[in-house]
Amino acid sequence: MSFSSPKVSRPSNSPPTLTDPARFPEPASAPVRSRRAWILLLLTLILPGAAQVVAGNKRLGRLALRCTFTVWALVIAAVLLALLQRETLLNLFTSPVPSLLIIVVLVAVAVGWAYMFLNTLSIIRPGLLAPGMRGMISIAVVVLMVLTSGSLGYGAFLINSGRNAITSIFAAGPNMKPVDGRYNFLLMGGDAGEDRSGRRPDSIMVVSVDAKTGQAATISIPRNFQNARFEPGSPLWDVYPDGYNCGDQCIINFLYTDVTNNHPTLYPGSADPGASAMMDAAGGILGLSIQGYVLVDMAGFSDLIDALGGVTVNVGGWVPISGDDINGTGDHLPPTGWIAPGVQKLDGYHALWFARSRQWVLEYNRSQRQQCIQAAMLAQMDPATIFTKFSALADAGSKVVESDLPAGQLGSFVSLALKSKGHPLARLTIGPPDFDKNFPTYPDFGVLHQRVKQLLNPPASTPKAPTSKAPAPAEPAAPAAPAPEVPAEPAPEAPAAQAPTPAAPSSGPEITAEYLQQLAINGDDLTLGSLLANNGTCSPG
């Protein structure tokens, strides 16, 4: 079918007849009209405005084509940015003003594209089509409008959801700079229950990320850590010059409430003095400069996991869902349920209990499980999951997350998070299995700082040692003082596959939820402590 200029046939005994079917379809046959309709729709799908130039309002078509070419240029530029400068592109989507402009452009393009489809439908003139073809063309127009304008509108909605969440969660301020080539963030899980005076962070973890490679490490600080010290430049130096060292009343998770209630003026520029104090404490403990914090309300943590669609974890050992605390004494009623060993996809409720349960086990089991949850969430944060669940994640995050990270730098942090997925997550716990169980009460900060340095800067010469003289270095390395600590890093993961074996010897009773529940009812804490001792040996599923 030719879309050339109108041609005029002039028989000697008849008036002029227009024969161009693109602009004048009336004389054309039914098959030609149908082909014309589909071609005009295809032109509007690929190059909005082309159908109008060919068969409709040429002025409108030329205007639409200019807009189309501009949009294609922007799309090509975005693709090039994604390949060459990903952080710049992410910053455009996460910064308040650029993201608002992107939303406006998407909405304008969606409305304009929808109008062009409707205008194309009027050019097609369905009344000239065969009855069956009219319905097909009408359905095709609706489907194409949903796929094009609908997708653009949904994209604008997602960006707006993220923009609102970013405004709600993150701070406005100057960008952070890496210290010694790393970003160090304090991640806390805060719990403000009815039986508590203020919020207390029961989950305390420092996440350190290499600013270039994205290689990340997590360091868990147990809630019962004592004698936390502060650097001389900290506002808390004058209050606690010898450290936070008043015994059981000065375990680290009390510091948040202490500063919030008694010393808020020490941090006049901070929106959350308690969080700022915890950053100072974590920095002094680990010998790191902590640049920002993220505080997750544990009461809403389950909503965040549900928004993610659950989290898959290889559960190392049985984990109890504790019964009610009896009058705040620390004695609990028998568990209301159990999380069984093996690879499981946990919903929000069970993921929360997996991360916080510490009945019959040491505090450090919980720290290891929290590291597992964090690693599992990071592993599941793939682009497809984020895109399909973005609105729910943004909504849940805005309700349960607080942070002082600068909103304008989120693109850089997202890019680092994507890079970190290509590296194994290094882990350290200030307590078993990496340190003695008494270490958090009587910490040797020199040893601790050395371990942190080794974790973040593993020696590059390690792989070369076996090649030159394998037997020689192997002999002195075994009895050396640091030797007991070397296997500590793989310890949380290596035993995971074997975790159920010691808990259920063939000669003893089968370990089931019913059996464990009866032990709890009987008050057999000794047996339960033995059977549940491996419930920190977990790993991402």
UniProtKB/TrEMBL annotation:
Compositionally skewed regions (Low complexity) per UniProt: 458-472, 494-509
Native organism taxonomy: Bacteria, Bacillati, Actinomycetota, Actinomycetes, Micrococcales
Keyword annotations from UniProtKB, A to Z: Membrane, Transmembrane, Transmembrane helix
Region named Disordered: 1-28, 457-511
Protein name as annotated: Transcriptional regulator
Domain of life: Bacteria
Biased composition (Polar residues): 1-17
Coiled coil: none
Pfam families reported for this sequence: LytR_cpsA_psr
Gene3D superfamilies: LCP protein
NCBIfam families according to UniProt: lytR_cpsA_psr
Cell envelope-related transcriptional attenuator domain ranges (all copies): 200-381
Listed PANTHER family: POLYISOPRENYL-TEICHOIC ACID--PEPTIDOGLYCAN TEICHOIC ACID TRANSFERASE TAGU
Family: Belongs to the LytR/CpsA/Psr (LCP) family.
Pro residues bias (residue ranges): 473-493
Segments crossing the lipid bilayer: 37-56, 63-85, 97-118, 139-159
